[in-house]
Amino acid sequence: MTLILGNNMKMTSSLGSLFGHLATVLPPMLEEDEVTRSVSRDGLAASLAQLGPLEQGETVLGVVERLFSALALLHARSLAQGEWRFNSFSAWLVARSLLETLATDHHTLVDPGYWNPQPPDTDVEQQRALLKRLENGRIDYHPEKTPGPIRFVYVAWAVIHMGGALPPLREGGQGAGGRAWTFRLPGWAFQIERRAAGGALPSGRA
């Protein structure tokens, strides 16, 4: 176990140094200068190869290039010609910010508890807005206009008819952001882990 932990720590540190070095060899840019400069991808790969195995440097470079391309930071035509050139000074700053974060072990861009299962309402609304922007972009800018789904929702309903009438509606809680109260039929949330363990359905859940 000690040997595995040591190897993992060494790899993490090595990756950090690669990300940090890459941040220093990006094409230079000045805020006042409208002229964008390029650097060859082969040159970046050769620079990273000075710090470790060539395969590791190529993998890091490929992942970063894909991330930057997904964020539209790099000039697409230059990239197709094997050159890294940023679309603007702001794009260059975003790239530097991401690389500096990846270069530092255990560094996060948000509060470590931001994505907890039960965040505050303000965080929930921010998360929804972020996810909506990401998914709208993924749909609008997919090369073939056929992005795959990221979530599947399976719904099954059973309605109980008692004494010639349906059971009374239950009142739901107020949603995040002050949304109106809701009413729904009595029911339970299906929990895979409880059913897999042979447990009963939770009482009073809807």
Outline of this structure?
This protein is 46% helix and 5% strand.
Structure description:
This protein has helices at 2-24, 41-49, 54-70, 76-80, 89-103, 121-140, 192-196, and strands at residues 38-40, 83-85, 170-171, 183-184. The chain is built from 7 helices and 4 strands; from the N terminus they run αβαααβααββα. The chain has 206 residues and is mostly helical.
Notable features of this structure?
206 residues; mainly alpha; two-stranded antiparallel ribbon; 5% strand; elongated; disordered N terminus; disordered C terminus
Proportion of helical residues? 40-55%
What share of the residues does DSSP label as strand, in percent? under 5%
What is the SS-derived class? mainly alpha
User: What order do the helices and strands follow?
Assistant: HEHHHEHHEEH
Morphology call: elongated
Biggest sheet, in brief?
Answer: 2 strands, antiparallel
* End-to-end Cα distance: 45 Å
Strand order of the largest sheet: 1-2
